[in-house]
Amino acid sequence: MLKKKIVFLGSKPIGYECFAHMLAKREELNIEIVGLLTHARKEFGNAHDLSTLAEEHKITIIEDENDIPACDILYSVQYHKILKQEQINKASEIAVNLHMAPLPEYRGSNQFSYAIIDDKKEFGTTIHQIDTQIDHGAILFQKRFPIPDNCWVSELYELTYNASLNLFKESLASIINCAYNPIPQQSLETQYGTSLHYRKDIMALKQISLDWDSQKIQKHIRATYMPGFEPPYCILNGKKIYFSASYS
């Protein structure tokens, strides 16, 4: 049986872990990884460098989306660009994306923060088909879990990270063997609703007014205080005053 050819697109620690798992399972799953397309994220340090991992395993590093080679499957995990249709078409079987949020509720970026702001009781992670819109394609696999009371964004990220890695591992063979039943997101919008947030939108959540009640202030701090990123703040006498975190 011919090996399935896969191109992996990814970044961040979750992308690294998924790529490492795929590499480890090549023989068992009868796959060949014919290219890696990545984007370095310096805020996560050097411990999750996908390019270094690819070089160690003699995997071709692709420099541009237009250079994606013909393959059976495109697999994206936290890749930062939206693919064009001609790039998606490089995959003869399917192009899929691991989105660290439940769909159709939370498309786009900073989904953890918005779930806390929205007082959601449930979150999740989704593997969906890629189309030319943001996190819009049919759902292939999904895992949902409860959000703890008074959850901080870093805690929700960690829960979602673990659920996402598990979902990737559990479903990888099914993706390769075309054992999935795509569910259009539109069929779930009445039940779950939908939203789309962009990277820049987080700044509006981080700006806190001292006129708010203490519960709202605390919720915005929990939703936006993430180590390694600019903290939430208020404006006082024309200057930014940053909030620190207290987990007590």
Distance between the termini: 57 Å
What's the arrangement of strands in the largest beta sheet?
2-1-3-4-6-7
Strand content: 15-25%
Uncertain residue ranges:
none
The major beta sheet can be summarized as: 6 strands, mixed
Whole-number mean pLDDT:
94
Shape: globular
> How many helices?
9
Topology, element by element:
Blueprint: E1 4-10, H1 12-24, H2 26-29, E2 31-38, H3 50-56, E3 71-77, H4 85-88, E4 91-99, E5 107-108, H5 111-117, E6 122-129, E7 139-146, H6 153-176, H7 189-192, E8 196-197, H8 202-206, H9 214-224, E9 233-236, E10 239-242
Parallel strand pairs: 1-2, 1-3, 3-4, 5-8
Antiparallel strand pairs: 4-6, 6-7, 9-10
Helix pairs in contact: 1-6, 5-9
Using brief descriptors, characterize the structure shown.
248 residues; alpha/beta; 6-stranded mixed β-sheet; two-stranded parallel sheet; 9 helices; 10 strands; globular
Detailed description of the structure:
By secondary structure, this protein is of the alpha/beta class. The protein is about 30% helix and about 25% strand. It has 9 helices and 10 strands. The strands form 3 sheets. It has a 6-stranded mixed beta sheet. The protein has a two-stranded parallel sheet with strand order 5-8. A two-stranded antiparallel ribbon has the order 9-10. Helix 4 links the parallel strand 3 and strand 4. Helix 1 packs parallel to helix 6 and helix 5 runs antiparallel to helix 9. The chain is globular, with a radius of gyration of 19 Å.
Task: Characterize this entry briefly.
With 248 residues, this protein is α/β, with parallel strands linked by helices. It has helices at residues 12-24, 26-29, 50-56, 85-88, 111-117, 153-176, 189-192, 202-206, 214-224, and strands at residues 4-10, 31-38, 71-77, 91-99, 107-108, 122-129, 139-146, 196-197, 233-236, 239-242.
